[in-house]
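Anyone have tokens for F-box domain-containing protein? Sequence:
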Amino acid sequence: MNPPLPTEILHPIIKFSLPIVSFRTYRARYRLLLVYSLVNSTWRALAKKELYEELFVKDLKEAAAALSAEGACEAVKRIHYGLPYPWPDSDEMEDLDLGKVELPRSARELRISGFRVNGEVLPSLAQLETLHLRWCDLGRDDVLALCASPPYFVPPPPLHSLSTLSLGDPYLFPTAFPSWTAWFSPATLPSLSRLSIALGERSETVGQDEDFRQALSLLAPQLTSFSLAQGEGKFGTEADFPWTKFTTLSRLALFPNYWEATDLLQAVLQGVPGSVSALRIGDCRDFEIRYRMGRFWQQDVLEALATAFVEGSPSLQNLQVLSIDLLDDDKSDGVDVELEKLHQVMAARGGSLEYRLGWEGEDELLDWERFVEPW
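Reply: yep, here.
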């Protein structure tokens, strides 16, 4: 009989045998880990540890039950709280009350989907390193304006550990939540270095909010990674958008709208300093337009990139990795020509060109995780 594998070898084997974590794969992961737990006590301990590192819960009741299990509070690192694709109306959202379920001290990442998040929740997030807010309303629209105004408003305490933040289709009620410049700022987020913003129909007004752009201009100098999905708006192309403030930016991901896809790229190339070493450009989330405009969209973007290289855009002077999301693998001649041009340019500077299929979701929905974690 062969001797058992050491734990330091067995654990990576178990980890790499599992599908990538997401709402779609959680059940498959659970079934595999259940099988592994039946092998012997060593496998069971490792499977249990891997299971509790990622918790997927829909509501407070599920969260309380999951965290009450033996060993859960010591093992959990990431909590996914809410539904994968809730699409709730604003008035149907429940308030997030983390006071009823204390976050385990081991938790470093929290993903909240489809809840109202009120200002008093912010202090309870102090231990987190990563926070994803998706389809969340910040505050309530039925609270008096006095609540978020001086002298009643108290600025939130700094979240010193938070380095990664994503806002997916956010909506802020300024009468009941600290203004963007009050909480979405270096004072509250002193360690933030990775930011992702994905706007959609329900958050289109956020992109038009001058306070939001002002807050972003204050955060921009400390960001090394930034991802922007325009959705249906023009966010990022405004004359006062603070692209010039991203002075330490290393990784940039852009998901422009279809009908004016090159506008966002041109705005970036005219404003972002030359510190960017990795650039990703992908398709946005407009499902209906995708089939009508897909190839025109990607060819226009590729042509604009090739032209920018020829003209010596300062924003691209240090680029080493260029990643392009293609809408399908049936590329037209025009797309092939532009891809070859870009491949030659990147090879000449010792860099690389990567491209992948961009449409990764199911049930006519894009995989939202590629917006918040593009690298």
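The longest helix spans residues 287-310.
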